[in-house]
Specification:
40% helix, 14% strand, rod-shaped, 9 strands, Cell_wall_metabolism_enzyme, alpha+beta, 4 helices, Glucose Permease (Domain IIA)
Length: 352
């Protein structure tokens, strides 16, 4: 620790004799008497300037030690800094150390404080540690980036696999649904075709059965005459008929054309019938009455049994007529109102 400058000597007081008998304490006439001096804070304050005593810091040995340790730390730090691969050597700057003379000279300013070993080595080590830390940080960042990239790629690939799987499942579901719909449509079509075929077969069978029935009936029934022309049909309107419409079916044929029994039955009437002329009524076994009107002659009598095709009379023009023809009426159950003779004949397998 530096000490203050020594306090100045007490002022000389002439005539004052020193009590000391030594040479240094003998009275000198050229210096005069000395006065007593009491030091104060102001009088003992160190003098600054040219005559300032250099601050002692351990002398040359301490400076050399600091210098040697600093050089060793710098060399070590430089070696450590240059040990990092791929990095340029770190420049180490040492402060200018004062020479030995400056440590004891009164004319030079006080030497700057030497940089402590901790500062020199710490700076180098901090620089080296910073660069090493930067390298490690960069490597860690690179590894972290690569790991993040790998994870992102894996997640993207997993998501793509999920999307592909979902799309494939949707496609398979759509194909399965289409196949199911196609199968259902095919089954429905097959069922419809089967039903149509069955219906057609049934209709064909019914038709065939009807044809057979009509064929059988046709063998049992017969048209009332042959070589004819249909001139007036059932229900035809006109003033020629007292009811205002035609009540039967007219078969125009030459006078004398044979009239035949349409089916097996009994003759219930045979004779003159006013506007109908000569009329024969054939009553069938089921009660249906067949009227043969406008005959020129009658070949049967009441109560006579006849079979299908037997001659019962001849075509004529008797009664209310305009020409020779057979006026045929059909009265089911003997009703006064007749039905269409053409339809009734067709129902028996006959085609008038």
């Amino acid at each position: 620790m530096a000490s203050n400058r020594p306090a100045p000597a007490a002022p000389f007081v002439p005539g004052q004799e020193s009590p000391e008998p030594f040479a240094y304490g003998s009275i000198r006439t050229d210096e005069g008497p000395w006065e007593e001096w009491n030091p104060t804070e102001e009088s003992i304050r160190p003098v600054r300037g040219r005559h300032r005593v250099a601050k002692q810091r351990g002398g040359l040995a301490r400076s050399s030690t600091v210098l040697g340790v600093g050089v060793i730390a710098a060399v070590g730090a430089g070696g450590m800094a240059s040990a990092a691969p791929g990095k340029a050597p770190v420049s180490i700057s040492l402060p200018d150390l004062p020479n030995v003379g400056s440590l004891i000279s009164d004319d030079e300013p006080a030497e700057p404080e030497a940089t402590p070993l901790s500062d020199i080595g710490g700076s180098a080590l901090a620089a080296t540690a910073g660069e090493a830390s930067g390298t490690a940080t960069a490597a860690t960042a690179a590894d972290a980036g690569e790991a993040l990239r790998t994870r992102i790629m894996a997640q993207a690939e997993q998501q793509q696999v999920q999307v592909d799987t979902k799309a494939q499942a949707a496609t398979e579901a759509a194909l399965a649904k289409e196949a199911q719909q196609a199968a259902a449509a095919a089954e429905k079509k097959a069922a419809e075709e089967a039903a149509a075929a069955k219906k057609e077969a049934e209709e064909e069978a019914a038709k065939k059965a009807e044809e057979e029935r009509l064929a059988e009936l046709a063998r049992q029934y017969s048209l009332p005459t042959s070589s004819y022309t249909l001139t007036s049909t059932f229900g035809q309107a006109g003033s020629m008929w007292s009811s205002g419409h035609h009540t039967g079916l007219d078969f125009a044929a030459p006078t004398g054309t044979l009239l035949k029994a349409v089916h097996t039955g009994t003759i219930t009437e045979a004779g003159w019938a006013g506007s109908y002329g000569y009329r024969t009524i054939l009553t069938l076994d089921d009660g249906t009455e067949i009227w043969y009107c406008h005959q020129s002659s009658i070949s049967v009598s009441v109560g006579q049994k006849v079979n299908t095709g037997d001659v019962i009379g001849r075509v004529g023009a008797t009664g209310n007529v305009t020409g020779p023809h057979l006026h045929l009426e059909v009265h089911p159950g003997g009703d006064a109102t007749g039905i269409d003779p053409a339809a009734w004949l067709r129902s028996k397998g006959l085609n008038p």
